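[recover] target loaded
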């Protein structure tokens, strides 16, 4: 049978692999050799599952959104990752990787962050588990995500502003990799999405796969069958989408719809629609689709949503697009803003701007009345209130 899962060499089709400096070979190889054994062990599963339940608050609800269902002519469920502790799906991954780091005898945790959500999740789990925590963050992001910087500091993390390049996520990631090269023995690098060298994309997908495991059980309870007709999620690096689709990847009864950030429009030069605009290349240790110019220089992405503003994408998702297993839609800033206001007014749920891109894809798909659709709300909108108020969609301005 055809599979969209990773192969034994760490590739999804032509995408993935581990393209890393010599000095990191041992660390990445140590991780590769251990992650499946640890993640599949009873001891890890027991501790991970009990933290997901009692600390994160899982299972997250599968909520039947009646008014939104009526609006789009289908049965629409929302998978409520916004209700997790710290407000998004990222905590699932942070807990899993830091439990793994402890089992590998590492005491020092480093991470990169863009908007600060992964930094906050990592700092939170480091506080819980009494680990040293250093977060690399571009200086531009430090300035525009001040509240998250203060949260990380309150949690006891050291935030190191990065002044190289455009001073955003890509530069913070480079700096975190440099730190790892300097401290390969005692340091564990927590990557926040399904990106980076093998085994990170597969490891993060497995840690987030609790989302689709729960969807199966919850759909069975609500609908008497354990699969939907459509799964929908937004894609930055791809971790909430990977978690949403993991247990359905090879079940072709299920349509997969991925929403990437169109920015001001994919032909404006102000976009982060990597799958639409990217070409194969190497970024942060993986071969995947990369936004780049004719000389192979990575081009600066743009999105109103900091969490989707990345010039690469997970190799799993690049392959799903290349093989047409997934339908990938670019959703613009304005479409996302309108979708966020719509969810807020119809269901009383203020979504994260990232999640609003998944909601913005609803109007681009033609559903049949009998279709069951599950859309993941990856996070809550508290962090985005200022952006929402400063960018009222044109339809609401009158
Ligand atoms: C970080 C983030 C994203 C994008 O990351 P993925 O790895 O693509 O899931 C999406 N939604 C929220 C709320 C985020 O914080």
């Amino acid at each position: 049978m055809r599979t969209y899962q990773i192969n034994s060499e760490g590739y999804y089709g032509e995408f993935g692999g581990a393209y890393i400096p010599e000095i990191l070979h041992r660390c990445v190889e140590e991780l590769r050799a251990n992650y499946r054994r640890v993640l599949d062990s009873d001891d890890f599963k027991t501790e991970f599952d009990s933290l997901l339940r009692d600390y994160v608050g899982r299972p997250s609800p599968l909520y039947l959104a009646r008014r939104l269902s009526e609006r789009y002519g289908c049965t629409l469920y929302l998978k409520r990752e916004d209700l997790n502790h710290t407000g998004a799906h990222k905590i699932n991954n942070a807990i899993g990787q830091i439990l793994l780091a402890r089992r590998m005898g590492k005491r020092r945790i480093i991470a990169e962050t863009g908007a600060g959500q992964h930094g906050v999740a990592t700092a939170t789990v480091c506080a819980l588990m009494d680990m040293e925590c250093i977060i690399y963050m571009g200086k531009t992001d430090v300035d525009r995500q001040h509240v998250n910087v203060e949260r990380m500091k309150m949690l006891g993390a050291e935030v190191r502003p990065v002044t190289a390049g455009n001073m955003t996520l890509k530069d913070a990631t480079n700096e975190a990799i440099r730190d790892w090269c300097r401290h390969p023995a005692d340091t564990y690098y927590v990557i926040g999405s399904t990106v980076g060298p093998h085994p990170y994309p597969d490891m993060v997908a497995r840690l987030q796969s609790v989302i689709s495991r729960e969807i199966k059980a919850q759909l069975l309870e609500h609908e008497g069958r354990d699969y939907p007709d459509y799964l929908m999620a937004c894609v930055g690096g791809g971790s909430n989408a990977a978690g949403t689709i993991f247990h359905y990847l090879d079940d072709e009864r299920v349509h997969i719809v991925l929403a990437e950030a169109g920015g001001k429009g994919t032909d404006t030069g102000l976009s982060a629609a990597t799958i639409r605009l990217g070409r194969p290349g190497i970024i942060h240790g993986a071969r995947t689709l990369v936004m780049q110019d004719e000389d192979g220089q990575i081009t600066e992405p743009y999105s109103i949503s900091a969490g989707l503003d990345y010039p690469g994408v997970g190799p799993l998702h690049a392959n799903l697009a290349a093989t047409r297993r997934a339908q990938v839609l670019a959703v613009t800033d304005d479409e996302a803003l309108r979708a966020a206001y719509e969810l807020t007014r119809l269901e009383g749920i203020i979504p994260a701007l990232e999640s609003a891109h998944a909601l913005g894809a609803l109007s681009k798909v033609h559903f049949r009345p009998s279709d069951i659709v599950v859309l993941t709300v990856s996070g809550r909108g508290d962090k985005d209130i200022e952006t929402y108020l400063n960018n009222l969609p044109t339809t609401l301005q009158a």
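[recover] notes: The longest strand covers residues 255-263.
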